[in-house]
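Much of our argument rests on the idea that a fold can be written as discrete symbols. The amino acid sequence and the backbone structure tokens for this protein are reproduced below:

___
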Amino acid sequence: MSVTADPALTAAVAVGDGQYARQVSGFQLKDVPLLSRSALDRAETLRGDEQALKEGWAQARLLRMNRRGQIRLHDGTLVLDEAVTLAAEPVPEAVFLGVDGGSHLWAVRDNDIDGQLVDLRAVGESLPTDDISLGVLTTAIALLNWHDRARFSAGDGTVTSPVKGGWSRISESGHEEFPRIDPAVICLVHDGGERVLLARQHTWPPTMFSLLAGFVEAGESLERCVAREILEEVGVDVRDIRYLGSQPWPLPRSLMLGFTAVADPEQPLAFSDGEIAEAHWFTRDEVRHALSLGAWGSVTGRTSAGAEDHKLVLPGSISIARSIIEAWAGE
């Protein structure tokens, strides 16, 4: 059986093979992406120890989160209740997150919480990066979102029950299932010089632009996904694809894998798959100016000037997109 490869994709991902062994210099991330800076001890060995989890429950702390992913804040910090206010011992619907200062940490879905409620998008940039807050929040969101959608086995359709502190579910037939993570690539496309390609989705405000991204398909490598997604979304062929770093993105359950690639700015843009409303090549100076304005929310919140007065507004630091853009802009 003969197999014919897609010439465009083959050329795009060939860098690194012996035939295309040239090394391309480029920028690196200056800092670990915000949501990857977790100081949380996940205590994996405790998950299957029911007795240890029961014993730790008496002094455990509990994060309550509603179905919109909102939690309570007090003076800028996460509100963690005593776990015993929920029940005398661990309940099936609670998920074990890890350990902090000798205390077990849990999370539970609670739609009756009140007070100052915020979600990850709103509060992520303001939470300290040198403690457990971001790790607790991202892990809780990812696990609770998975449980909401995994109540029946994908294998045989029978009801599943949580086990191992919420880190897996067992079906009535005995099949064990684990939290699902969807890998997605996000790529900064530049011309090898002073220009970068940024795009806007249809649902975004008129001047908000970011990097191109997409989900990895079955049987596909990360590099080939980068080439395919960019070709589908903006009609551009890329080369010199290079990995930069990763970040959890539990909205609802993704892992963002950051890349950079080079493209020809003279190649016409084409938005064939309908996901992108528009895309443009911006100069490094334009990007640096946009970064100096802050993120989308901070720009629109200013009284002196709204975002409509600016040509380009970029996403906030909660996204790996900003980390990548900052690294390229500061090269």
Remarks:
- Helices lie at 7-13, 50-57, 120-123, 133-148, 222-234, 284-293, 296-300, 320-329.
- Residues 20 and 322 are 30 Å apart (CA to CA).
- Confidence is low (pLDDT under 50) at residues 1-5, 10-25, 300-307.
